[in-house]
Amino acid sequence: MTTVDTINPEKRSTGEQLLRLARKNKLSTFGLIMFLVIVLAAIFAPLIAPHDPLEQNILARLQDRSPEYILGTDTFGRDTFSRILYGLRISLLIGLTSTVLAMILGCALGIIAGYRGGWIDSVIMRCMDMLLAFPTLITGLFIVAVLGANFVNIVLAITVTILPKFARVARAPTIALKEREFVEAARALGFSDLRIMALHIAPNIVGEVVVLASLWAAYAIRIEAYLSFIGLGVAPPTPTLGTMIRDGFEHILDAPFVSIYPGFAVLLVVLSLNLVGDGLRDAIDPKLRD
């Protein structure tokens, strides 16, 4: 009796294969460990932070590192280290949420366009081309400026800017996969188009999508920092890394650490995600496998 596993042998343990191959790349493993440490620090910020991130101490404003304030204080005397931990929460939440949404919507549109073809393909991909015609940062700025600066609108803006990337990546392999034998066999068994796209095509493109997701998550976090820096991020006094960099910019000459430390935090997050993405890319590239 024919089963789904015999129809689609390529779908088995793709995630496990990626994980096994990524372990061979030590730099990628280091990036993954770094990212996990950052995520854990953000999750347990209330337990790790030595001070309330909103508590002001004017007498200690612009203070450099000290036993009480590990990374100094900002212009209002708030603890920089505590604010970075809480700022990482916002940056990671916005960046990862928008990336996951863009991945789901973009891949769905790309698979539909590649599988159905014809006018459906043309309409979907021309819409994606329209979004790609504008610089991603400008598109994000426009959406946030029109809808207003809050968590939901920022996530929406970043999702829209990176969604076309996933759609284009998902469409190309779908066009090739829909002619493969296991898809033809699924059609012969009477499977619906939706079932074929969800259970037979989507799992086979997950490798490329995961690589793109890790790389564009880093970009999404940078976009959030840019928007916060120009005043279109989450409203104060909620700490965000971009807002902290902007607040310390006017003291860049006499107290550069106010901007440097949150900037370094953004650097570490982006670097760790890029290292993970590079490792995953090497893992799924047949030319780079052992």
Automatic annotation (TrEMBL):
* Key words, A-Z: Cell membrane, Membrane, Peptide transport, Protein transport, Transmembrane, Transmembrane helix, Transport
Q: Which SUPFAM superfamilies match?
A: MetI-like (SSF161098)
PANTHER family cross-referenced by the UniProt entry: D,D-DIPEPTIDE TRANSPORT SYSTEM PERMEASE PROTEIN DDPC-RELATED, OLIGOPEPTIDE TRANSPORT SYSTEM PERMEASE PROTEIN APPC
- Tell me the Gene Ontology biological-process terms attached to this UniProt entry: peptide transport; protein transport; transmembrane transport
Which residue positions does the secretion signal occupy? none
- Indicate the segments forming the ABC transmembrane type-1 domain, all copies: 88-277
Q: Which InterPro entries match?
A: BP-dependent_transpt_permease, MetI-like, MetI-like_sf, OppC_N
The UniProt family comment states: Belongs to the binding-protein-dependent transport system permease family.
Query: Which chain regions cross the lipid bilayer?
Result: 27-49, 90-115, 136-163, 197-219, 226-245, 257-277
Q: Which domain of life is it from?
A: Bacteria
**Principal subcellular localisation of the protein:** membrane
Report how it sits in the membrane: Multi-pass membrane protein
What is this protein's record name? Peptide/nickel transport system permease protein
Q: State a single Pfam family of this protein.
A: BPD_transp_1
